[in-house]
Amino acid sequence: MLIGSHVSMKAPNFVLGSVQEALSYGANALMIYTGAPQNTRRQELDKLKIEQAQELMKEHHIPLEQMIVHAPYIINLANTVKPETYELAVEFLQKEIVRVRATGAKYVVLHPGSHVKAGENVGLDQIVKGLDTALEHNDDVYIALETMAGKGSELGYTFEQLKYIIDHCKHAKMLRVCMDTCHMHDAGYDVANFDALLDHFDEVVGLDRLVCIHLNDTKNERGAKKDRHANLGHGKLGFQTLCEIANNPRVEHVVKILETPWIDGKAPYKEEIDMLQTKTLGV
Ligand code: FE
Ligand code: FE
Ligand code: ZN
């Protein structure tokens, strides 16, 4: 099972610290933000202890593909209302690709964007335009569009919308998809029926595009369009469903990442990874 969680990336050990944190959870995968997820300020590359991080991963037989990067969620490629927001998003993404390449990671997970009342089609076309620009001169870092809950004016809450972006982007070969179980449920998909969901995804997008699954329970009813993550077994999806997804042979090669909430100021990831591997609900 390729399983890990979101981990921190902070001074003084940066990426090395991220890998150490992942190992402390018994993980063989990890997801980092290259800085604070809510802003676009970033540390100099040479301070990130990338080489030491890669060495530690190698020692533990963790391929670089199992380190996922998540772009900050404030960047919005779909914005046509404020040109400066769109410009910032494109510029940030271009620099992020350079940073990700330096870390050796292959995949950047990206929230496609929100149309901020301009309309879905306008927003989708703006995302395509942004990706066309951001992905120029790049043939080794893939952007994995995340399936969204459809909160507010979020785009990418249907497989068809992701397919539209992929089909219209000049650099479609550099696009991949990251599923989020909480988001898909909140968007209205029947996540419990995961094999049928995979069939549907395969028909619309193609299973070969799937590179990451964010494995989260959800606090909301199906179709609520809310996006509130819950700990495994403490939400509407339930442990059985999430455990079956983690162990589904059709997505065996796909990295699973936990983004479940901390409990009493403590990361729950060691326990949750253990639960998935042993297929038993913890206390
Ligand atoms: Fe995300
Ligand atoms: Fe997610
Ligand atoms: Zn979410």
What does this structure look like?
By secondary structure, the chain is an alpha/beta fold. Helices cover 36% and strands 16% of the residues. It has helices at 14-24, 50-59, 83-103, 120-134, 159-168, 181-187, 194-204, 239-246, 269-278; strands at 3-6, 29-32, 67-70, 107-110, 113-114, 142-146, 154-155, 175-180, 210-214, 217-218, 229-230, 255-258. Strands 1-2-3-4-6-8-9-12 form an 8-stranded parallel beta barrel, surrounded by 4 helices. A two-stranded antiparallel ribbon has the order 5-7. Strand 2, helix 2 and strand 3 (67-70) form a beta-alpha-beta unit. The longest helix is centred in the N-terminal third of the chain and has 21 residues, at 83-103. The protein is globular, with a radius of gyration of 18 Å. The two termini are 22 Å apart. The mean pLDDT is 96. Residues 70, 109, 111, 146 line the site of one fe (iii) ion (FE).
Oligomer: single chain
Order of helices and strands: EHEHEHEEHEEHEHHEEEHEH
Main sheet record: 8 strands, parallel, barrel
Distance between the termini: 22 Å
Structure summary, number of beta strands: 12
Strand-pairing-aware structural class: alpha/beta
Unreliable residue stretches: none
* Mean pLDDT level: 96
In short:
By secondary structure, the protein is of the alpha/beta class. The protein contains 9 helices and 12 strands. The protein has an 8-stranded parallel β-barrel with strand order 1-2-3-4-6-8-9-12, surrounded by 4 helices. A two-stranded antiparallel sheet has the order 5-7. The chain has a two-stranded antiparallel ribbon with strand order 10-11.
